[in-house]
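Worked Example 4.2. Consider the chain below.
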Amino acid sequence: MAPSSAIVGKIKVQLKLSISRLRMVQQKDTAIAKQQRRAMAVLLELMRAANQQGKEESARIRVENIIRSDITTELLEVLELYCELLLARTGLLEAKECDPGLEEAIKSIIYAAPRTDVKELQQARALLVEKYGKDFALEAVENSDGKVAERVIKKLRVDPPDPELVTLYLKEIARTYGVNWPRKEDSPDRQKDEGDDTPSDGQASKNLEEPLTTAELSKATPPRDLGPRSPVSVAPPSPSTDNLSPRIRLPGPPELKPGAKMSGNTTRSGESGAKKDIVGGKIPDVDELAKRFAALKK
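Applying the procedure from the previous section yields the following structure tokens:
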């Protein structure tokens, strides 16, 4: 048997390759699923236009393939998360016994890898079996201790989907692509009422609402979003472990405090103003000016 450090190094390399391959397969399956949904929408539109209810069973069978593809994509996403977990905790793989924090991820990969088409994941599984032994692998395959994740077991089942789920898929596809399915037909009473209101000449009458008066318009409240909007928008921060209740704090105008020079100048200007008031006094009258000129002539 190879040394533990050498096997851990190989496992680390295969986990990186598995993560890259799993992402590529998910992107490919997602693109194929979009094409299948588009084709299903076209089929529903043809069924509605031709009023062919017999092809609904064919549509349901095709939707089952879309559901199975979505389940497989979800399974690959779960396995990718487990690979990332093992890659982040490669230090725990150095131990001889399996760490309890990694047991679910390792046994889920050993259980599900043979049921996928990802060769890199199967090679990582073989290295994990070599690392922990055949007895450990047998427990994972049989799930005798119940350590395999329940969501992995559920997504690997081959049971047909529920009819309600199939109907929900059809409705969602029709809603996404704007197809009127199932066709919403009006009730007989409503059709009768509409027929009575229709004029005899075959032209549909339009009920126009009365215009609002000036007084009603003056009382109306304008919408809040009326007027130019600010080009700057601030997204609220998301809560984190450091700050559970984040708030937006916008910078306000700076508070200016007078310095020593400004306060000194202000004091001096106040003193000089007081001296001017004392020296100058009030503005003299004409008579006082005449008396001063007369005294200067003498």
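The longest helix spans residues 4-50. Residues 71 and 215 are 61 Å apart (CA to CA). Compare this with Example 4.1 before moving on.
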